[in-house]
From TrEMBL:
It comes from the Bacteria. It comes from Asanoa ishikariensis. CDD domains: Nitrilotriacetate_monoxgenase. Belongs to the NtaA/SnaA/DszA monooxygenase family. InterPro entries: Diverse_substr_monoxygenases, Luciferase-like_dom, Luciferase-like_sf, NTA_MOA. It holds the Pfam family Bac_luciferase. GO terms for molecular function: monooxygenase activity; oxidoreductase activity, acting on paired donors, with incorporation or reduction of molecular oxygen. SUPFAM superfamilies: Bacterial luciferase-like. Signal peptide: none annotated. Keywords: Flavoprotein, FMN, Monooxygenase, Oxidoreductase. This is FMN-dependent oxidoreductase, nitrilotriacetate monooxygenase family. The keyword Flavoprotein applies. The lineage of its organism: Bacteria, Bacillati, Actinomycetota, Actinomycetes, Micromonosporales.
Length: 447
């Protein structure tokens, strides 16, 4: 297996996520794409035909009337992916579940079920919820602060992983001749008592062919990076330049090594936007149309999300950006602080901040298939990422990538020609984690 090949993920966003204000108007995209399981199955099958490693389902559990169109009306990730699982054979199935508003036992059981259903293709995108309004949907008067959110997230993941080791691989002999269905010595209660959770266990489900679902994680704050370095096997991020990507990868791997982990077992897989056309000139013109088609008023409303959906429409657009104090500290703090710093250092008005953020969405991956293939290869060879997550909306635009860019990268050996495994771990080149109880018995037998 060649580990150093570009990994591929497809982010399925239906009628459009943040900044995709007019995506839903495309005649190729059904108006109900975000809740149409047939749409997801078709996109997953297209990604599988192109030998993608995984499809990626983002999620959150709080909305306002100003939320992106896809967020307003979408399916729960693991329910969705379980349906996709039975219509695909190789592609990984990565779903977002928050550690802030879920209990570990329930998460462990749902993800393990997806892993068994799919034959070892499940992945968990771990998030510590940023949308503060989610608290009200779970009976809390106030959202968790940053320290609590990330402390809870780390303990949550460790408890889930402990539950996934409830059964050793040989716990169920199912031997009809001897009449032995189950070996109780291979079942293990967890007995966890921690700061945030108390879980007895064991989990009532066997391990899958890949041992445990693959842990993905997204978060760029210092706490988020530290969490990713501690628990993640693949990290979903964003970078505007090669240098930013290189710096992020170095930082994460240094943190992982400091925690005693093998840094080579942490993949950096950012989300990227593609603008493809037959020529570079046509692609740049296409990008200009896309940027010009963004809705300023909707972008102004979406600006409120990092600040707990603060209402920016009440301010004078041409006055200095408002003083917000600690607003955003219990929401998407890193993003909120970056916007405050941008406004402060450039003395921007509110209008200029919104315009800048709209322009900032320009992609480095704009051009003909060969130009985009060259740029992806340049970033990959420079160590700015190990793979990419491509946003999927209109099928024809996705096909420009799979039929135009990927053949070039395959010819160069950057992307594999076929699947190497039936599991997500196998295709990502990640090791199967040994059951901790099996490992303890093995070590005891040689000591």
């Amino acid at each position: 297996m060649t580990r150093r090949q570009l990994k591929l993920g497809a982010v399925l966003l239906g009628v459009g996520g943040p900044g995709q204000h007019r995506t839903w108007l495309d005649p190729e995209i059904p108006g109900d794409a975000s809740v149409d399981i047939r749409w997801y199955i078709a996109r997953a099958q297209e990604a599988e035909a192109a030998r993608f490693d995984h499809v990626f389902i983002v999620d959150s559990q709080f909305i306002t009337p100003d939320s992106p169109h896809h967020y307003l009306n979408r399916l729960e990730p693991l329910t969705l992916l379980s349906a996709v699982a039975v219509h695909t054979n190789h592609i990984g199935l990565v779903g977002t579940l928050t550690t802030s508003y879920n209990d570990p036992f329930n998460v462990a059981r749902r993800l393990a079920s997806l892993d068994v259903i799919s034959g070892g293709r499940a992945g968990w995108n771990v998030v510590a919820t940023g949308d503060g309004g989610t608290a009200g949907n779970y009976g809390r008067a106030e959202h968790y602060d940053y320290t609590t959110r990330y402390g809870r997230a780390y303990e949550h993941v460790r408890v889930v992983q402990g539950l996934w080791d409830s059964y050793e691989d040989d716990a169920f002999p199912r031997d009809r001749d001897s009449g032995v269905f189950f070996d109780p010595s291979r079942q293990h209660a967890l007995g966890h008592v921690g700061e945030h959770f108390s879980v007895v266990g064991p989990l009532n489900l066997q391990r899958s062919p890949q041992g445990q679902p693959v842990i993905f994680q997204a978060g760029d704050s210092d706490e988020g990076r530290d969490l990713g370095a501690g628990i993640a096997e693949a990290i979903f991020t964003h970078a505007q330049t090669i240098e930013q990507g290189q710096a992020f990868a170095r930082d994460i791997r240094a943190r992982a090594a400091a925690k005693g982990r093998d840094p080579d077992n942490v993949l950096i897989v950012p989300g990227i936007s593609l603008v493809l056309a037959d020529t570079d000139e046509a692609a740049r013109e296409k990008e200009r149309r896309l940027l010009g088609g963004k809705d300023f008023d909707r972008a102004l409303k979406e600006l409120g999300r990092p600040f707990g959906w603060h209402d920016f429409t009440r301010y004078d657009l041409d006055a200095p950006f408002p003083e917000l104090g600690d607003l955003g500290d219990r929401s998407f703090r890193t993003q909120a602080d970056r916007i405050k710093k941008l406004a402060r250092e450039n003395r921007f008005t509110l209008r200029q901040v919104v315009r800048h953020l709209l322009e900032e969405r320009r992609s480095p991956f704009v051009g003909s298939p060969r130009t985009v293939a060259d740029e992806i290869q340049r970033w990959w060879e420079a160590g700015a990422f190990d793979g990419v997550n491509v946003t999927v909306n209109a099928p024809s635009e996705f096909a420009r990538f799979t039929e135009g860019v990927l053949p070039i990268l395959r010819e160069r050996g950057v992307v594999r020609s076929d699947y190497e495994s039936t599991t997500l771990r196998g295709n990502l080149g990640l090791p199967i984690p040994e059951n901790v109880h099996t490992a303890a018995r093995r070590l005891a037998s040689v000591s």
